[in-house]
C-alpha cells in the first residue's frame, strides 16, 4: 500500500539521519474508502494524487507551527504492507481527515518510493499560506485564497538517493 507522510525539510533531515520514519504512530495519507467516496473516482493515479495533496496540506500545517522552518512542503511516499496503515473509524466522515491513516510502527527509509518537495519558487506562497492558515481555519475567505495559492505549486519528485541534496 502506498502512503504519503507529511514532513518538513528539517523533519526529512532527521528521518535521513535516523534511517527511518518514526517512532510510531505515524500520521500519513492514503487512498481510503472515505477518500474514494469524497473524490468520486476509480482512477488510482487520481486518487493517489488526492492523497498526496492531503499530505502536502498536512505538511503546510507542520510548517505553520514552526516559525524557523524553511517554507517548502515535504511529503515522503512509502510502501507499507497492506493493513499496516489504518484509518481511524471515528474520523471517517470528518472532511479534515479524509485519507488520513495511522501507521503503528516506525518505517525504514528504505521503504520510501520517493520524496516530493516544493521548488524554491514556491517558498513565498508557502510562507504566505502558513501565515494565513489560522485565519483560513476560522472562515476568512481571503486567507483561504492565500492558503489555496500554495496548492497551485506542484510538488517535485525526487528519488530517495537525492535526499542529501535536498537537506544540504
Describe this structure in words.
The protein is an alpha+beta fold. Helices cover about 40% and strands about 20% of the residues. The strands form three sheets. The protein has a four-stranded antiparallel sheet. A three-stranded antiparallel sheet has the order 3-6-5. A two-stranded antiparallel sheet has the order 2-7. The longest helix has 21 residues, at about 45-65. It starts with a strand and ends with a helix.
Count every beta strand, where a strand is a DSSP E run of 2 or more residues.
9
Helix count equals: 6
| First-last Cα distance | 30 Å
Strand and helix order:
EHEEHHEEEEEHHEH
The average pLDDT value, as a whole number, equals 91
Please state the overall shape, judged from the principal axes of the Cα atoms. Answer: globular
Classify the secondary structure makeup into a structural class: alpha+beta
Low-confidence stretches: none
The major sheet is characterized as: 4 strands, antiparallel
As a percent range, the share of helical residues equals: 40-55%
Rounded radius of gyration (Å): 15 Å
If strands are numbered along the chain, what order do they take across the biggest sheet?
1-4-8-9
What is the beta-strand fraction? 15-25%
Amino acid at each position: 500500500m502506498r502512503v504519503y507522510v507529511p514532513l518538513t525539510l528539517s523533519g526529512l533531515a532527521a528521518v535521513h539521519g535516523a534511517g527511518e520514519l518514526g517512532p510510531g504512530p505515524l500520521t500519513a495519507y492514503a487512498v481510503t474508502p472515505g477518500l474514494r467516496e469524497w473524490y468520486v473516482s476509480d482512477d488510482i493515479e487520481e486518487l493517489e494524487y488526492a492523497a498526496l495533496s492531503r499530505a502536502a496540506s498536512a505538511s503546510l500545517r507542520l510548517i505553520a507551527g514552526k516559525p524557523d522552518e524553511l517554507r517548502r512542503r515535504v511529503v515522503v511516499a512509502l510502501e507499507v504492507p497492506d493493513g499496516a496503515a489504518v484509518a481511524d473509524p471515528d474520523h471517517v466522515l470528518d472532511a479534515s481527515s479524509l485519507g488520513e491513516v495511522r501507521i503503528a510502527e516506525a518505517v525504514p527509509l528504505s521503504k520510501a518510493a520517493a520524496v516530493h518537495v516544493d521548488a524554491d519558487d514556491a517558498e513565498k506562497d508557502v510562507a504566505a499560506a502558513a501565515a494565513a492558515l489560522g485565519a483560513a481555519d476560522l472562515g476568512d475567505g481571503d486567507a483561504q485564497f492565500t492558503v489555496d495559492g500554495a496548492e497551485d505549486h506542484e510538488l517535485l519528485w525526487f528519488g530517495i538517493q537525492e535526499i542529501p541534496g535536498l537537506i544540504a
